[in-house]
Amino acid sequence: MKGVTIIKHPLVQHNLTRLRDQRTGPQEFRRVLSEVAALMLYEATRSFQVQPASVQTPLARARGSKLQREVVLVPVLRAGLAMPASGSSGSSVRKPRSEQCFIIKVCRPT
Questions:
Q1: Do 90 and 34 contact (CB within 8 A), yes or no?
Q2: Of 95 and 30, more confident
Q3: Is residue 46 scored above 60 in pLDDT?
Q4: Where are the domains of the chain?
Q5: 68, 72, 73, 91: which could join 38 in a potential S-S bond, CB 3.0 to 4.6 Å?
Q6: Mapping DSSP to helix (H, G, I), strand (E, B) and coil, where does residue 20 land?
Q7: Which residue pairs from 35-40 have beta carbons closer than 8 angstroms and sit at least 24 positions apart in sequence?
Q8: Nearest Cα to 38, choosing from 56, 57, 59, 15?
């Protein structure tokens, strides 16, 4: 499918199976969701452009990189709402400063 990325990473596949398993309790589900969110964030940001940056470390100046653009996280579907939150608190992959936005559909009776 065009525009769809399928993540075939073994840890993602393993954790998706754990999320689908009815025996997975709520606490483990949240922890595993956090792991999946971190891995998805890693894959989703792979093509982000960076620019050179210089920082002062405790010992000397060092060269590094910073993102060229701001990052905005937009969860899709209700199940995605926990992912930016879980990715920011419990994951080993930290996202750069980012905003979380919501797309809200307003329905009016006809």
A1: yes
A2: 30
A3: yes
A4: 10-100
A5: 91
A6: helix
A7: 35/11, 35/91, 36/12, 36/83, 37/82, 37/83, 37/84, 37/86, 37/87, 37/91, 38/87, 38/91, 38/92, 38/93, 39/7, 39/9, 39/11, 39/12, 39/15, 39/93, 40/7, 40/12, 40/83
A8: 15
| Amino acid, res. 96 | P
Identity at 37, one-letter amino acid code: A
How many residues appear in the chain?
110
What CATH number belongs to 10-100?
A: 3.40.50.2020
pLDDT band at residue 63 under the 50/70/90 scheme = very high
In this structure, are residues 79 and 19 in contact, taking their beta carbons and an 8 Å threshold? Answer: no
Read off the tokens for 22.
Answer: 């009815």
Residue type, position 13, single letter: Q
Residue pair 39/56 in contact (Cβ under 8 Å)? The answer is: no
| pLDDT of res. 99 | 58
